[in-house]
Amino acid sequence: MGMLLGQTNWNTDFIVDQPYRRYKFFFTANSSDPNATYPVEGFMKFTDGTSLKVIDQEMSPPIGTGKMFGPFLAVPGKQASQMNFKVGASKNPEATGFSYRISVQGCN
């Protein structure tokens, strides 16, 4: 359990297989705990090894509801390689028991 402190609950990368003009991140709460608080971060990762944080938010949505983040425009001069979602963090290590759905969409 000590290993979870300071680590994210889920750190999920979505591969970008072609260039898109904008990206949207989707989060939906599935936890049955009405007091669930989800620390949510989102990053655009690039082929040059850099990244850009586009989401940094604490959420307490009712079960079955969520949020769309974005659209976030592609960064000129950079090629996106991954979109990254992190849910849960050391600021709320108890978030490891909460359930949720995440997805990312590339749009032209």
Structural write-up:
It is built from no helices and seven strands. With 108 residues, the protein is mostly beta strands. The strands form two sheets. The protein has a four-stranded antiparallel β-sheet, with no helix packed on it. The protein is elongated, with a radius of gyration of 14 Å. The N and C termini lie far apart (43 Å). The N terminus is likely disordered.
Task: List its traits.
disordered N terminus; single chain; Jelly Rolls; 0% helix; mainly beta; four-stranded antiparallel β-sheet; three-stranded antiparallel β-sheet; elongated; 108 residues
How would you summarize the topology of this molecule?
Blueprint: E1 10-15, E2 22-29, E3 38-46, E4 51-59, E5 66-73, E6 80-87, E7 100-107
Antiparallel strand pairs: 1-6, 2-5, 2-7, 3-4, 3-6
